[in-house]
Amino acid sequence: MKKCLFFLMIFALSHLAYAQDSTIVKSIYGLSIAAPQPSGLDQFIQFMEDELGPNGINTLILRVDYNYQYQSYPQLRNEVALSKKQVKRLVKTAKSQGIELIPQINLLGHQSWAGKVENLLKEFPQFDETPHVQMPEEYVWPNADSLYCKSYCPLHPEVHDVVFAMVDEIMEVFEAKAFHAGMDEVFYIGDEKCPRCTGQNKAELYANEVTLIRNHLAANGQELWIWGDRLLEGKVSGLGMWEASINGTEPAIDMIPRDVVICDWHYDVAEPTPAIFASKGLQVIICFWNKADVSIAEMKMIDSFRVNSNKTMRPKYLGSMQTIWSNTGQFIDAYHGKSDNVSSLAQAESFRAMIDYIRTHDK
Description:
Layout: H1 2-20, E1 28-34, H2 41-52, E2 59-63, H3 84-96, E3 100-107, E4 112-113, E5 116-117, H4 119-123, H5 159-174, E6 178-182, H6 202-218, E7 223-227, H7 240-243, E8 261-265, H8 274-279, E9 284-288, H9 292-308, E10 317-323, H10 328-335, H11 342-361
Parallel strand pairs: 1-2, 1-10, 2-3, 3-6, 6-7, 7-8, 8-9, 9-10
Antiparallel strand pairs: 4-5
């Protein structure tokens, strides 16, 4: 009995020391979701006030893309888009709930989806990395052109004039300190038919684009966040072409600035890849989607890394994030039991598991 009490005391003291360690920062508990449509703004704000803030979600990535009434390039707006006044309501609510608001615009990749070209390449087709790849009438994967999503050409001399104008505008209206640039699933890069990129090293092209965006933000005291898949090796690791790279971009992990925050997503298995990013000196957030057991496993893993790492590595493990890839209103309805959409229900279950974990572990 005395021996048992002794070990319990040692355990308690060790956790007290952990809690008092100056290298420990409060864990990020994040949600990544599409910015609401104007018609769903009231519903989303209520969700922030009733569910996000009270349940410990302290970081909210809103995928804005073209869902904003841009003034710099009005032609890039969606037909229906959030106004400045509506965004300010989101900002005010986030502040009241202690939530850091981080806007996202997909840069480099994800410039199309299925059979639809997104607004940047629709309005500025000269930015297309692969103009010879035509959009299909009916999209299927795989296909002869290896078309998943289009990319813009990172070496086009005018593309960043447009892109950075959008970034600056969205950062100002959201009063944000960090920007998420996407940068995931980039399959078209350094294309052999691109007059500027042909023959270029793909890892260097990717790293240079990350660095250019990072430097633009840093000049305004702002931080860059990206998804991490293009920085991981996919063949030898078994991670594959989606969660990692098989087209040569992975060496970029050693070329990008060390202050870029990596959102490391794995949806089927709790891969221990945050340790790879942390060992490279990069801060990392682990991200999950629609499997509650995987979500819990990933949260336990990142907490284990935080507890068991040395003082140099420990601050690199920032926390965890739920990602939502269905319609925002549909997800909220599923969360409240008002939708029977299978995909949204699975994501809602994962998010509930995250909230339960926060309640029982973040004390």
